[in-house]
UniProtKB/TrEMBL annotation:
The lineage of its organism: Bacteria, Bacillati, Actinomycetota, Actinomycetes, Streptosporangiales. It is found in: Cytoplasm. The gene is tpiA. NCBIfam families: tim. The active site is at H101 (electrophile), E173 (proton acceptor). This is Triosephosphate isomerase. GO terms for biological process: gluconeogenesis; glyceraldehyde-3-phosphate biosynthetic process; glycerol catabolic process; glycolytic process. Keywords: Cytoplasm, Gluconeogenesis, Glycolysis, Isomerase. It catalyses: D-glyceraldehyde 3-phosphate = dihydroxyacetone phosphate. Gene3D superfamilies: Aldolase class I.
Length: 257
């Protein structure tokens, strides 16, 4: 099996001001500083207004933690009041940007074409998009979840090259599992993550598909992460609620301990 480095990404959503962020990221980074901790990539995605603080904390002590944003504009610059460009995030040292989170899709009417444009903007700025896909409860109940997710994937990857997709991360986040405490079973997570990898092999080739990291997201906690990570096609997690608790997030990052 190919060696894909596990990735644990925390999505703080609209929580923590820039001073709270200082405390939170310092606690996490300190607990992950030991030289033995290199086997997992750890990323935090705070609100835009916290990024400068996070950059300062991490740069100050060479912490082995990376950071990114929760959204980005599809435009490069110009008259887009309230928007943030990918180049601005790259300049602040961001290496990842979440695109197409279900909350953006639901509350900001983001469709697959917009998610695709945002992913391209992130790739164009030499950062890694974390492209979120996932079905709602009705789709899951009807049994259409795999088809739904693969359609989202196709749309999000439109005209993205093999070279670019290699440095893209896909996050499978069933909407019914987000913030509900109802984690998908490891088998459910594997079914969809496996289907995503098979589709990547169809869209590109098997070698490319083997390199792409696929995350599971939805009520991941310290006590369910190991079973999820045991699945062949689950390469990490996108973590919401638990990423606000340094103890819990560090436990997730240290799932092998
Ligand atoms: C998320 O919103 O990306 C998420 C996975 O949230 P939670 O972990 O709180 O379910």
């Amino acid at each position: 099996t190919p060696a894909r480095k596990p990735l644990m990404a925390g999505n703080w959503k609209m929580n923590k001001n820039h001073l709270d962020a200082l405390l939170l990221v310092q606690k996490m980074a300190f607990a992950l500083k030991e030289p033995d901790f290199e086997a997992v990539d750890v990323v935090v995605c705070p609100p835009f207004t916290d990024l400068r603080t996070v950059q300062t904390v991490i740069a100050a002590d060479n912490y082995a933690i990376q950071y990114g944003a929760q959204d980005v504009s599809q435009h490069a610059s110009g008259a887009y009041t309230g928007e943030i460009a990918a180049s601005m995030l790259a300049k602040l040292g961001c290496s990842y940007v979440i695109v197409g989170h279900s909350e953006r899709r639901e509350y900001h009417a983001e469709d697959d074409a917009l998610v695709n444009a945002k992913a391209k903007a992130v790739l164009g700025a030499e950062m890694t998009p974390i492209v979120c896909v996932g079905e709602g409860l009705e789709v899951r109940k009807s049994g259409g979840h795999v088809a739904h997710v693969l359609a989202q994937l196709d749309g999000a990857l439109e005209k993205i090259s093999a070279e670019q997709v290699r440095r893209t991360v896909i996050a499978y986040e069933p909407v019914w599992a987000i913030g509900t405490g109802e984690v998908a079973t490891p088998q459910d997570a594997q079914e969809v993550c496996g289907a995503i990898r098979t589709r990547l092999a169809e869209l590109y080739d098997g070698g490319v598909a083997d390199q792409v990291r696929i995350l599971y997201g939805g009520s991941v906690k310290g006590d369910n992460i190991a079973r999820l990570m045991a699945q062949a096609d689950v390469d990490g997690a996108l973590v919401g609620g638990a990423s606000l608790d340094p103890g819990e997030f560090v436990k997730i990052c240290r799932y092998r301990d």
